[in-house]
Amino acid sequence: MIFSLISLTKSKQIPLIGLFTRDNPEDGYNNNSSSPSSSSLIFDYATKHLKAIKTIHTELVIQRYEQDIPCDMAIATKMVFDMIHQTPKPLAIFSGSCRKVASAIAETAGVYDMTTVFYSETSSLFAAREKYPSLIRTVPGDSQHNIARKLLLRQYHWHRYGILYQYERQYTMPVTRFNDLLQDENDWENALSKGISFNDLDETQGNRTRNSLKEAFDELQRNNIRIILGNFNSTMAIRLFCEAYRYQLFGSRFQWIIVGYYEPEWWLNNPGPCNTSEVLTALNGTLQTRVARLGYHVNTRTMADLTPDQFQFDLSMLKTSDYFVGYAFDAILTLTSAFEQLKDCPNEFSNDSIWRQSCWRNELINIIKNTDIEGVTGRVYFNNGDRIGEIAIEQILGRIEEIRCIFYSTFRIVFHNHKSTQVDTVQLYVALPTNQSKYILLPARTQRNITWHGNGPPNDRIKHIELDQRISILTYTIMAILSGIGICLAIGFFVFNIIFRTHRFIRMSSPQINNLIIAGCILSYASVLLMGIDSTLLGKRSSESSMNFICAARVWILSIGFTISFGAIFSKTWRVHAIFTTVNASKRAIKDYRLFIFVGVLFAIDIVLLAAWQIVDPLKIFKDISQTQTKDEDVVILWIYEECRCNRRPIWITMHSIYKGVLMVVGSRFAWATRNVHITALNDSAYVGMSLYNVVLLSITTAVVGYFLRDQPERSYIVTSIFILLCVTIILCLVFVPKVREVAKDPRSMAKPQRAVISTVKRVSLQEKLHDKQQTLVSIKHIASQNQMLRLNAVMCDVLINKLLAAIDDPNHEGYRYEIFMPISTSTTDELTHPVIDPIG
Fold this sequence. Notes:
This protein is α/β, with parallel strands linked by helices.
């Protein structure tokens, strides 16, 4: 083994082990390797500036291999053991290596309680202090990104999000801590948390596993997740953004936020099914969080008398591109500051047991954990060995440019087009820790704004605009006026019915039953007024209890009004049917009290059903929501409307519908059976039948239309109210307008009543008509002959009567015996009887 020894001639020299890996092939998440030139240059650069500080009396001596070691755990472990046992004995390990080597170094150093300082390892696995008790990291760990993510989400009001993470422990731990960070606040919604392993990327067998990549994207689409957070390495990132391109989960409606990567142009390492342009199309606009390369306050001086601006200028002269070079510099500052504070520790580094002394073990690690200095990457202080540092929020902006190249040859000019990929990473914000170990979000010094694909930041969900869907004042006023007119019309008919109750036409149409029809119609008109009342008219304090009462009142009033009016109409139709469909109809009389009993039975059934409904399952007011999609896909209007509902409403409505439906069917049957009956004594039977047809038709229409408009209160109210007003008004007019006309024609009831007439319509053939005509002619001749005989008999009777009168008037009369010949019938062949009349006396 060949070791290089770099020493600083000062009063106290501290030997260190320096281990740096050549590359990091298995880890695309961080580029944790530093080239040999970078690690050597930064150490020389730092020690050079520290030499110039007169107040610092500590010299660092770093022992390392001339060449960086490969990323191999076995080799790294052996080298650690070899370097620990060399002379002088090292007191700490200073390393920038790949994750496998870093894990081996930290575990080995932990066995010896040797302080280990990493400046480039961000994995959350190294936060386990029970496994790595002597580990110090001068670079913020992955879990520190969670606070920056939270601030970013809050900045743009993204409270609903989904998380896709690589199904490995180093990626699941930050996700768990992120969820723990947000669980104490109620305004966050984690709509999806899905782990994906590399085994899930190959779905050639057609069987999707539980953590399938396609299943994850199906859930993103199904749950309509717009803000997608990612924790995965760069290899999986390429595959995920390829899938995002296929699912069209990018653009103005989506925002990806990932934990960034430190290797340059990682998107070009594309083994996936998509080409690079497709991956960049989906990646364009993605936000990423990375540790800040340099501190936010660029003019703050460090213990090496350097500012971040000066350090950045010097880096450009050193021509090093290592992203973590600033954290390596701060690691050297941290070790120098810690060793500077250890004044009384022995410095016999040739002694094999010197590093076992508590001064170099416990006190050193405690001093580092309590360190608070200024570095080129910002304020350097720790939380149990983990750096609390600045997190940069950046945006990846990719564009594909088509370039036309012109080639000249001897005979022709050749044009060749090819696409050039341009990707920029722009720093937008810096999450800066405060004195209270909290973070604030500050705009980056670049003064760049986020480039949105649309007019602004995407919504984290479909934006729901809640609007109250109420019956407008204008609509309610119009319906109230129409209902009031209907009530006035009903009252007018009631007054007419009372005034002319003794009129023959009114009396024969059962005026008391007509009053029931009017009462039911008034209740139906009143139900229209109740249907238009909602909580906005009642005020907030009493709205709920009052609306519950109104809910019940609507059903009771409309149902009772329907039962009374329809029951009265039904009973009148039943009476006409009972009289004219019975063999001895002329001998049958149905009084009004029987009709009242009939209506009372229907009313009692209605009361029982409504009371049972109200007691067992009362109607209450509920607020329901219906949604309407706008032209903007991200905006949906939620209409909040009130609905009277109960737990078993369909059952109760079905019971009432069956009960009243049977009545309407039977009533329609009676009306059809008596359609040809014209009764002057009961002069409104035809209009009653028309009323029944009207009730049946409009009731069915109202029920159907009301069902389909149940989520549109105003339209439902308008349609239902119009049908109720139309139905009730038609009933009133059909029943009472004919009576008004009859009374107007004969106000004093002087016209003679006519006999009941049942009109029948019979279809006959032509032969039957000729036969009937012949029969009619024969009958006419027969009747004319009979009429002539009757005339002769009448003449003979007149002669006889005159003789009798003369005999009676003659005072000197004598008893005569007269023989009178009287025909028994009007037939010309009738036999004559010969009664004998003895004159008086």
